[in-house]
Amino acid sequence: MKKCTEIFVRVMPILMVVVIMSSSIFGISPNLPTTGGTQLNGITDLAGSIWITASVIIQILAIAAIVIAGVRYMFASANDKADIKKQTIVLVAGAILVFAAVPIAKFIGDTANSAL
């Protein structure tokens, strides 16, 4: 599990930068209106749908990682609980960053649009 946490800590900032950069490059707003079952109109709608889907999947994975760490903590011995607490702190910080990515991306997109 230690290796998984190390991978999560290294991949999450990179993934956040990619999500934020893609939103500002493609002009994607995280609050896109739904298409209501109709076809997507253009690359912006498609990229917005992909971005929203990816952010939801990442948020679900962050919550799942915290739940798994909690279950491991409940069944761990006294010696292992200190290591799991350290890992959980990192997971909670990562989850905060994941959930903050959407408002941050919206802020960057709105700022970039207003600057133009």
**From the alpha-carbon coordinates, what is the Rg to the nearest angstrom?**
18 Å
Shape: elongated
User: So how many helices?
Assistant: 3
Helix content: over 70%
Largest sheet report: none
Question: Stretches where pLDDT falls below 50 for ≥5 residues?
Answer: none
The assigned structural class equals: mainly alpha
- Find the count of extended strands (DSSP E, 2+ residues): 0
Q: Sketch the topology as an H/E string, one letter per element.
A: HHH
Amount of beta strand: under 5%
Q: On the 0-100 scale, what is the average pLDDT?
A: 75
Distance between the termini: 46 Å
Describe the structure.
By secondary structure, this protein is an all-alpha fold. The chain has a domain at 50-111. Helices cover 83% and strands 0% of the residues. It has helices spanning 2-26, 43-75, 78-115. It is elongated.
Task: Summarize the SSE layout with pairings.
Layout: H1 2-26, H2 43-75, H3 78-115
Helix pairs in contact: 1-2, 1-3, 2-3
